[in-house]
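Q: For a teaching handout, I want to show students what a protein-ligand complex looks like in token form. Below are the inputs, and the small molecule is adenosine-5'-diphosphate. Please produce the holo structure.
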Amino acid sequence: MAYRRLSSLLSGSFSASSNSAAYLLSLGRNSNFGGGISRFSTAASLEAPITPSVQINHTQLLINGQFVDSASGKTFPTLDPRTGDVIAHVSEGDAEDVNRAVAAARKAFDGGPWPKMTAYERSRIIYRSADLIEKHNDEIAALETWDNGKPYEQAAKIEVPMLTRLLRYYAGWADKIHGLTVPADGPYHVQTLHEPIGVAGQIIPWNFPLLMYAWKIGPALACSNTVVMKTAEQTPLSALYVSNLLHEAGLPPGVLNVVSGYGPTAGAAVASHMDVDKVAFTGSTATGKIISELASKSNLKPVTFELGGKSPFIVCEDADVDQAVELAHFALFFNQGQCCCAGSRTFVHERVYDEFVEKAKARAMKRVVGDPFKTGVEQGPQIDSTQFEKILNYIRSGIESGATLETGGERVGTKGFYIQPTVFSNVQDGMKIATEEIFGPVQSILKFKNLDEVIKRANTSPYGLAAGVFTKDIGTANNLMRALRVGTVWINCFDTFDAAIPFGGYKMSGHGREKGIYSLNNYLQVKAVVSPVDNAAWL
Ligand code: ADP
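A: Here is the structure, written as tokens, with adenosine-5'-diphosphate included.
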């Protein structure tokens, strides 16, 4: 069944709205940019980037419903990953601005209308926000592509619609959050109240700026908390634009505050603030450890973490190799390889290994790299020079440690941060490219002989975010789904990110779950209320 579903996904018969991952797959397969030759754009075509058709209206901090300069008056540049040129100068928030934002959020929580209004009214504001975002879908997508470098087609047809969908999902929850009555051993009436935690500090990364924003603000607002959001310094623009729309939709001042700025200054101030009641973070495991320490050393605030990954993608011996290659390619290369759950250890059974490697190489060579505003482009630039250099270093390390470079390995063009889709075969477990998070378009293919062995090797990683399993055999799928110590197992699919599907990690990939019903737990307190029942005859 699952296998048949995948077949139809791969043939592109699912629409974008019914399954976004399927749409991405169909972008890769059905557009007419195949043909077997290398599809890297020429340096010349990258020298003249397409001008985005969107205006940048908001570059200041958003505090208490107003766009304001930072207290220091400082700004920082946000760069176009296609060229490294400055797109805009953005107000640079630091501890002083976080203090202002937290004070506004505190006031809005303690005395403002937001937690006091009816759940239905809150729900309607979130629904209206989603409607406005939908209306501005294409401008928001253009802003996201400009600041982040991801293909515009994906931003406009998948990510911004998913942002809208996520907000509607959480709007639907807002008036369905309530406690329970609990039977007790005695003459008591016992009930639970599900109450908001208070001021939520949220720190997000640059790889999916808007989705991370929605995963965080959605449940926080549905549960009537107030928020101080610290966006990533690489991608501050889209959250400011969208947060303005939320205010247009009726969000009261102080409920959602957005502070742009750097991690060790603004981010650390959010994590360590005594008046922030919880912190949610998505980013690297190293930064997660810092935030955990700041949170516990201040007021022991609870934390939700979605951290790094080194996800196995396991191709079993019964696999249809062509389909497995396509899905493994998507699992790794999607979003320029900048996914915490990327299938970055491609384990392939020895029976199909050689054929798989040949075809994975051919598929990577056909991948269309170019200006992300151009139609048909599958891969834009990496986010910035730091990531770009880091990825090229990993590629050098792969070569030096003896893995076979099948294709790629170089930059594309002379400007910006484009990297060739790169495939390594003969990768061994101990190599850095097989253990560390590369966060780039580098596929590492490893060989395995049997299921017990691959389970052990897949679970050796300190990470446990996700895994992909590709098989026609239900027994194999059942066995693997239980044995893998990860937060998500995708069987014959990958990166399916429905609003209702919980996402999060085992081990050093984090704790807590985002999206779906479980995400509400991160933003609620449970209060037990107990009162005696006088007339015991009723018991
Ligand atoms: P990456 O290495 O991929 O940029 P990070 O985990 O460093 O990932 O960054 C993710 C988010 O965490 C960003 O918003 C960043 O500014 C923030 N951040 C980085 N360092 C710190 C820190 N010391 N304290 C709080 N937030 C931080």
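A: Two things your students might notice: Confidence is low (pLDDT under 50) at residues 1-38. Residues 203-205, 230, 232-233, 262-264, 267-268, 271, 283-284, 287, 290-291 surround adenosine-5'-diphosphate (CB under 6 Å).
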